[in-house]
Design brief:
The structure is a homodimer.
Chain A: H1 9-19, H2 27-34, H3 43-55, E1 60-62, E2 70-72, E3 80-83, E4 89-91, H4 99-108, E5 111-122, H5 124-128
Helix pairs in contact in A: 1-2, 1-3, 2-3
Chain A binds a DNA duplex through residues 4-11, 26-28, 40-45, 47-49, 51-52, 67-69.
Chain lengths: 135, 135
Amino acid sequence: MERTYKRSRQRERILETLMQTTTHPTADWVYARLKPDFPDLSLGTVYRNLNILVEQDLVRRIDNGSSFDRYDARRDPHYHFVCEQCGKIIDLGIPVDTALEDRVSGETGLVIKRHKIDFFGLCQDCQTQSGIRPD
Amino acid sequence: MERTYKRSRQRERILETLMQTTTHPTADWVYARLKPDFPDLSLGTVYRNLNILVEQDLVRRIDNGSSFDRYDARRDPHYHFVCEQCGKIIDLGIPVDTALEDRVSGETGLVIKRHKIDFFGLCQDCQTQSGIRPD
DNA sequence: GTTCATGCAAATCGTTTGCACAATG
DNA sequence: CATTGTGCAAACGATTTGCATGAAC
């Protein structure tokens, strides 16, 4: 049986916050961002609501290989770039290659539902400040 | 200054275990696998050695989007398929597209060092037993 | 009024770490 | 013998959960 949801001011603001940024924030960042407006806000609530938003398919969870989850309110398919120096995640504009899925499917017999491409390297900011590296 | 390593029977067996399988095991799996041979083995040791093997570039850590890390002793570049039903990870034979990195780099000005493609869907086993789904 | 959401704190769980002792070079 | 590895148990850190109270419908 279907789960039903009731509106909550906190969840609406969490979604709004995610939609207003392109930085793919962590739960903690969202929490810190909203704390001034909701002095009693707890991290548990942020996590619970992020999970609900993901269930509702209004938000995507992206695992960037680091220890925390990041969230993205952009729902159209796109690829990501992860800066290995500062951890920033950047949305890429290159078109999504749907033929790739058919190709793998045809060659392997696997049922492919989706795919993900992540690029890793240095963002513009970190290219400039490359003197930071200790060695 | 460079870190130096001393040999250890445990680490050698951990690497050997990883090389003998294609299942991209978790730390826990490796631990359970070697426990009979090393009755005093501890999970901490397995984790410490996996980290060392990754530092030595003998093993790769792959983050499959689930909660635990998996490890892969295959070092040549290749893409992965993750079964959404059973969690299995399968190595794919399709060639790695290096031109893709140049293309993104050219369009964005980002320095691209590597990229990763993961496909998600149903493996052959899970396609057959699709009656498992509750709805 | 029944159901879902909140805040708080405690619990969970994969992974890391401090320490005393053993193995390596 | 100086350094690195081990086992054990405690610590960590991101996320989840139980519970009593509050908001939504």
